[in-house]
Every structure is written in C-alpha cells, then in structure tokens.
Amino acid sequence: MSFLTRQMTSKVPRLATRAFSTSRPSQLARITVVGRLGAEPEVVETAKGSTLVKYVVGTSQGPKDNRTTSWFRVTSFAEGPQRDFITGLPKGTLVYLEGDAAMRQYEDTEGKNRTALSIVQTKLDVLQRPRVESTESSEE
C-alpha cells in the first residue's frame, strides 16, 4: 500500500480538542449584558429561608427618537461584602454583567403557562456611577 492510499494512523491532534480543560465538555448558556440598573438591587428571602439579590438591568438600542429598551431580570447569590456592594449600587449605575442563562417555565396568576429568561450573575463590574445632580446652595 502506498503512502497516498493508506489510512492515516499517525497521532494527529484533533481540531475539536479543548486545550484549556481536561474535563468532559458540557453544554453552556452564557449571556453578557452592558446596561443600567433600573432600580436599586434588593435582598429577597426564598421560601426555604435563604437570601438572594434581585435586580433589573436595562439596555437600549436604536436611534434616539425611536429607542427601545430591553429589561433583564438578574439573580445573584453573592454573600458578605460582595452582597453589600451590589445592594449599595444606585439606580442608573452602568454595569457589565456576565451570567448563566436559562429559559424557565412558570404558571402566572391567571393559570397560563409562561416562559422567561432567567439570568444568574457570575460577574458584575461597575462601569459608571450615575451622575449626582448637586443642588446649588448659597454658601454665605
């Protein structure tokens, strides 16, 4: 058999090999959002007694005269100083958010089945704090 017709049996690296990990590949859904907080984050207690932080991030797109905003509801399981940092952020803070995304099904108050995007925060960076409008006071 000539070298042109024989099967390649040499060890050639697979193109799909994940060089950064030795674990089995798994499916992943990630989302990145850059937007402003729609309200101050709030601490919520679950039915099982644990606490978590919920907040909303809005992103706007389109021309100024016809801009549309998408609102993303985010959950954070941060604890300690990290939780205090998140809950101390004011409305309007520009944030960079990375999170795990999943579609969740639930039943609304009218008994209809609904689907919603669920985002669990994995990273949060503050890009810009909102401007604080200073009131002019007469200092005499």
From TrEMBL:
One of its GO terms (biological process) is mitochondrial DNA replication. It comes from the Eukaryota. GO terms for molecular function: single-stranded DNA binding. Keywords: DNA-binding. The keyword Repeat does not apply. InterPro entries: NA-bd_OB-fold, Primosome_PriB/ssb, ssDNA-bd. PANTHER family: SINGLE-STRANDED DNA-BINDING PROTEIN, SINGLE-STRANDED DNA-BINDING PROTEIN, MITOCHONDRIAL. This is Uncharacterized protein. It comes from Exophiala bonariae.
